[in-house]
């Protein structure tokens, strides 16, 4: 990840990360989703999904996350 991107969300439930990513994109936030799940353990172990935004949009993204009642972290 480049130095100007910050992690704003992580979860072990990939579908939740996709939902949050969609919400951020609908609000004009550029977001990158990294799947940290090891492909050799796809079934047995949950990995982490992480969302990153550019530092210039971090404050707005965090406000949107805090306003989301289903936000888990």
From TrEMBL:
Pfam families noted in UniProt: DUF2007 (PF09413)
Record protein name field: DUF2007 domain-containing protein
Highest taxon of source: Bacteria
Protein species of origin: Chitinophaga tropicalis
Domain DUF2007: 5-65
